[in-house]
Amino acid sequence: MLKISGHLSIPDAEIELHAIRAQGAGGQNVNKVSTAIHLRFDINASSLPNDCKEKLRQCTDRRISGDGVIIIKAQRYRSQEKNREDALLRLQALIKSATTVQKKRTATKPTRSSVKKRIEGKTQRGQLKSLRGKVDDSH
Q1: Are 113 and 77 in contact (CB under 8 A)?
Q2: In the CATH scheme, what is the code of domain 2-99?
């Protein structure tokens, strides 16, 4: 059972894990041992609430395929067990980020003193720039 939040969890039967050979450097270990983990999670067939499924489908993450399957390849570590944990943590983080509702921003008005400071700063800067002009030595 993968726990996402206090009231949301995914049964292990819905998460498909396959051990595959990792890419890259690693010598004999890479050639012989299947340490990388290929995780597949079908959003449509899952037991997640419908609103959560919809948010995940609308998410523009490259790990979510067009038919609603989350595919995560974990090959960061040399051991299969650590890669399995990593893949599950990444799935958990992806679902958590899609389901959290962002707080609506409330527009605020700048204070009178901050507006005054800004305008004073602009006039000072303008005066400084006007002093940079050519000097007239005709007198």
Answers
A1: no
A2: 3.30.160.20
